[in-house]
């Protein structure tokens, strides 16, 4: 088969001509947490404050590492105006994706870290100092370019209302009209074969809203049409499949929990139209939490790997690989306020969910029905407290497990299953690990007295 080189540089060239000025923030902390996303709840959007006096915004901004031409759904236009007005934005590593400071979230059920459905081909790597080139040679063929198309009439109004269409499209005139049958390029990102038979993993935001998905495999003359088997907006994961008799190489899954800060990693993807681009860095941190927002709501990412391997637009959905040549993360987002800060969803999070995606089933989503907040010093007198330790119940939604158990607004959770609670995230992280149907004991401080409540964890998908 004739190898056909891909060159999509023109796809992004106009974006590169624009000046993208971003301000760095001074505070990256997120104090509020929630165990239940209410459809009627107004959630704060993470963005930097804009000031003509040059003041710095008070929160750091993150963005997806996804590339899009006609549609950059989750972006806001950055204008360089005399006087130094600047704003930081939230973008995806593959095209689009969201994060926020006061998340209202549910919790995925812990399903273990092994999956019988993952069948991969292992590769041997040299130990003579050429390990990274060996990894690249063995892995490149399993990394794919994903392009999405939409019927322009279906998205035309969205494009006109999206300032980033003009920014990244590099032109100020309105798009021309198209008929219903004409497809138009919508976005681009990455993915990788993880199982024989044409099974590909990627981010949900890479393939969101697509009417047609094309997958270009290294060495193939023509792209393949892909079918979505399953996707999860909450977890930002998707499994797609292409039909072909070819024996595509696959990547083996590694153990992200075994990675240490400082360990070397390799990122492979298709940033800015440059296919099969390789960048190298280290694990900068683990267990990062970041919020990202878009017009449809907000997503809270937890347990992320942070890396200084360069992550750019078009990398979303691509693999982050250790020096054993195994995938330990999926590149997903980057900070727009600084360089060298990228994020990947670890295999410990997405591997247990693959079987649900392959079968097109909803992923069990544990929740108890509380919105929680950390306690601040200025709250102590009003709440009749003498310590900021604990998790304040900001909201209890009627009919939820916590409401049925008797927990009410302004209660302070001081223990969960007998373990002391310092911050709201302590409750969040505990609930995250609990299977649906599990009983959890919450010790609550109310009117100066401690009371124990038993709450049964439920599946939000069936709520």
TrEMBL record:
The chain crosses the membrane at residues 77-96. Pfam families: PDZ_2, Trypsin_2. It comes from the Bacteria. InterPro entries: PDZ, PDZ_sf, Peptidase_S1_PA, Peptidase_S1_PA_chymotrypsin, Peptidase_S1C. Residues 353-448 form the PDZ domain. Keywords: Hydrolase, Membrane, Protease, Serine protease, Transmembrane, Transmembrane helix. Residues 22-41 have a biased composition (Polar residues). Residues 1-41 are annotated as: Disordered. GO terms for biological process: proteolysis. GO terms for molecular function: serine-type endopeptidase activity. Belongs to the peptidase S1C family. This is PDZ domain-containing protein. It comes from Paenibacillus oryzae.
